[in-house]
Amino acid sequence: KAGVTQTPRYLIKTRGQQVTLSCSPISGHRSVSWYQQTPGQGLQFLFEYFSETQRNKGNFPGRFSGRQFSNSRSEMNVSTLELGDSALYLCASSGDSKGGEAFFGQGTRLTVV
Amino acid sequence: GESVGLHLPTLSVQEGDNSIINCAYSNSASDYFIWYKQESGKGPQFIIDIRSNMDKRQGQRVTVLLNKTVKHLSLQIAATQPGDSAVYFCAENKAAQKLVFGQGTRLTINP
Question: Do B97 and A105 touch (CB under 8 A)?
Fold first, then answer.
């Protein structure tokens, strides 16, 4: 069974640009959540989708958005990039609709210059 | 509030010794806790979980203890090996897959 796949692995963008990151969950999993990991703030929850609906959202500005497709694949978008958006963005999938073991991908390392 | 924290940022142990990593949480309403291991360049890897109706759960070389009275969670790793070197995170899983992570503890194994 393939794990969670995130693309791209590495990305360099310029301030003011926008970026789209992709996550393919484990086959059969319908819950996909996104996290931002930085040395200073640690792992912080961005949002979670289940069956194409956003169920939970963390405390991030509106520049951070996401969506989920009918095949459970998810994308997150960050607009008007800032230097502080440089981070490892992690996606996790789960087969449990109410809460359970979440499997993480290897992440996308975003660097904003 | 939503806060899961770790007592120690770093822990060094001798190879073969047991390791104990601690975590405090503040949300007494939480009912599910998880420990993750993150190696350099990789995403967090699930180690073991425990629900609030349990005090202890054992896995392969790992044991998680939950003390709801003092809101404390610990991860015990038996016979620590070089491959156990990583950052360990405790996390509180709220409803609908919202994980609140602690800051992490870096475990270093001395030969």
Answer: no
Closest Cα in chain A, distance from residue B41 (Å): 7
Query: Is the peptide bond prior to A25 cis by the omega test (within 30 degrees of 0)?
Result: no
Give strand ranges (E) for A17-112. 19-24, 31-38, 42-50, 53-57, 64-68, 74-78, 87-94, 103-104, 108-112
Chain A environment of B59 (Cβ under 8 Å)? none
Residue matched to tokens 């949300």: B27
Contacts of B32 in chain A (CB under 8 A): 99-100
Q: Which helix (H) or strand (E) holds B66?
A: strand B62-67
Predicted local confidence at residue A86, as pLDDT: 97
CB contact under 8 A, B99 and A105: no
Mark the ranges of chain A whose per-residue pLDDT is less than 70.
1, 96-100
Other residues' Cβ atoms within 10 Å of the Cβ of residue B56: 12
Average model confidence (pLDDT) for chain B?
A: 88
